[in-house]
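User: Please fill in residues for this 272-position structure.
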C-alpha cells in the first residue's frame, strides 16, 4: 500500500503528459482582414493662365493655403503657386532719323541738254535745229544748223545766263557761216523795163550778238527768244551778174543777204 501511494504522483504526472500529447492542436488564430489603402487625394487643378473658364475645386479638398506674405523683393515665390507672368514693358519706339531732303538742283544743272527747233531771221540756224549744252548754270553753248536766205547755215554761240532760275535773261555772242547759192538768182528786178537783175550769193560769215530770255520749266519745256544784230565778216557776198539794182533793190539786198537785225524763237525740250 505504501508502495502504491509512493508511485501515485509519478503516475499522475505521466498521465497528464500523455493526455496533452493525444489532445488535438488548438486552431490557428484568425488572419487579420486586409487593410484597403486610402484613396489618393486628387491634386488641385492648376489655375488657368490667360483667358478661359476657371475650374472649381472639389468640395472634398481642403481650402487652398493662403499665399505667403510678401516680405520684400528678396522673397522667393512659393513652389505651390505659379509665378505670375511679369508684364513686358512697352517697346520703346526709336525716333526715326530725320530724312535728309536734298535741295533741288538749279534747273540748268538738272537739265543740261536741250534740243530745240528755231525759226528766225539771221538766227543761229535760220530754219533748223539747235542743240544747247549748259556747261554750268550760267554758261551755255548753242549749236545750230539749218537753211536760210543765204544758203545752208551752221552757227555756234556762247551765252551767259544771269540767273539760275527757270526764267533768266542772257547775252550771247556767236559766229555763223553760210554756204550761199552756186546758181545765179534770176528775175529779181522790181520793175518791168526790160532790165533783168541776176545775182549770185557767195559763202559768207557773220558775227551775231544777241540778248534774250531762256525759259526752262521743271518738266523740260524750253523756250528761247533772242533779239540782236548780225555783222557780216566777209567781203560782199552778193555778186551782180546782170542788171543794175535800184535804191530799193539795194536796200532789199542788204536786208536779205548782208548784215541785219536778229529775231529768232526756239522751242524744244531739255533732258536730264
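Assistant: Residues filled in for all 272 positions:
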Amino acid at each position: 500500500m505504501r508502495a502504491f501511494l509512493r508511485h501515485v504522483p509519478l503516475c499522475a504526472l505521466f498521465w497528464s503528459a500523455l493526455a496533452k500529447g493525444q489532445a488535438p492542436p488548438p486552431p490557428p488564430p484568425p488572419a487579420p482582414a486586409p487593410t484597403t489603402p486610402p484613396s489618393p487625394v486628387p491634386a488641385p487643378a492648376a489655375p488657368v493662365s490667360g483667358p478661359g473658364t476657371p475650374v472649381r475645386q472639389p468640395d472634398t479638398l481642403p481650402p487652398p493655403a493662403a499665399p505667403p506674405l510678401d516680405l520684400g523683393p528678396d522673397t522667393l515665390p512659393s513652389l505651390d503657386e505659379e509665378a505670375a507672368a511679369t508684364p513686358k514693358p512697352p517697346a520703346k519706339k526709336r525716333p526715326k532719323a530725320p530724312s535728309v531732303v536734298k535741295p533741288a538742283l538749279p534747273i540748268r544743272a538738272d537739265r543740261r541738254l536741250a534740243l530745240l527747233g528755231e525759226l528766225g531771221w539771221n538766227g543761229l540756224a535760220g530754219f533748223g535745229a539747235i542743240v544747247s549744252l549748259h556747261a554750268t548754270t550760267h554758261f551755255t553753248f548753242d549749236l545750230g544748223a539749218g537753211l536760210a536766205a543765204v544758203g545752208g547755215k551752221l552757227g555756234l554761240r556762247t551765252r551767259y545766263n544771269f540767273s539760275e532760275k527757270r526764267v533768266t535773261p542772257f547775252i550771247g555772242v556767236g559766229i555763223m557761216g553760210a554756204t550761199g547759192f552756186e546758181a545765179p538768182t534770176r528775175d529779181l528786178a522790181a520793175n518791168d523795163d526790160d532790165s533783168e537783175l541776176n545775182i549770185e550769193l557767195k559763202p559768207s560769215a557773220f558775227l551775231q550778238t544777241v540778248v534774250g530770255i531762256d525759259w526752262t520749266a521743271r518738266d523740260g519745256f524750253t523756250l528761247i527768244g533772242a533779239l540782236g544784230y548780225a555783222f557780216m565778216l566777209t567781203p560782199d557776198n552778193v555778186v551782180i551778174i546782170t542788171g543794175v539794182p535800184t535804191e530799193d533793190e539795194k536796200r532789199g539786198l542788204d536786208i536779205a543777204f548782208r548784215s541785219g537785225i536778229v529775231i529768232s524763237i526756239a522751242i524744244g525740250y531739255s533732258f536730264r
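For context: The helical segments are 2-22, 107-110, 247-257.
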